[in-house]
Amino acid sequence: MSLLASTNLAKPCTSVSIRQKLNIIFVTQLKTRFSQLISDRLNKGQYGMNQDSPPKEQHFRVLIIDDDTALASYFSDLLESRGYQTTTFNDSVAALQHCESRLDDYNLIISDVCMPGLPGDQLAKQLLKLDPNKPIILCSGYTDHTCSQQLKQIGIRYFIDKPVDRSRLFKIIDELQSNTTH
Known about the structure:
Layout: H1 3-6, H2 15-44, E1 61-65, H3 69-81, E2 85-89, H4 92-102, E3 108-112, H5 120-130, E4 136-140, H6 145-153, E5 158-161, H7 166-181
Parallel strand pairs: 1-2, 1-3, 3-4, 4-5
């Protein structure tokens, strides 16, 4: 059986409408498969959700700054699934303005490096001027070893490559959390 016959597109029509119908079928099947894949992985805990680990201290607050809305939401969902409280910003300039009066509200800042307006390393410099001891994790998929050394020179203790290894992220947060309780 041909693709046209199996998709009920065998009736006479223009080639443009056939293409449109095939695109709709393809996109619908792709969305369904992607949704199933994400759902399966979420249920198995592959994105950090539904894990057996106990929730963390509810008062540990994390500020997430990433111009990519989907990644900021991913970080937020991931951390909230472990019991952390999160606030997200997709604009680094707005995040800096917020932090000028509210930096003490957060135990940790997680920021992307490559952002329009105010790049993450410059944002971190400004935040460290406000509080030199504030833990900041910078994340990027576009940096090299030299860049991570430069970040350490300005006071950034933690750098994570994207895609983020969630076990490394949680290890850093657990370390920070245990340091604040001792």
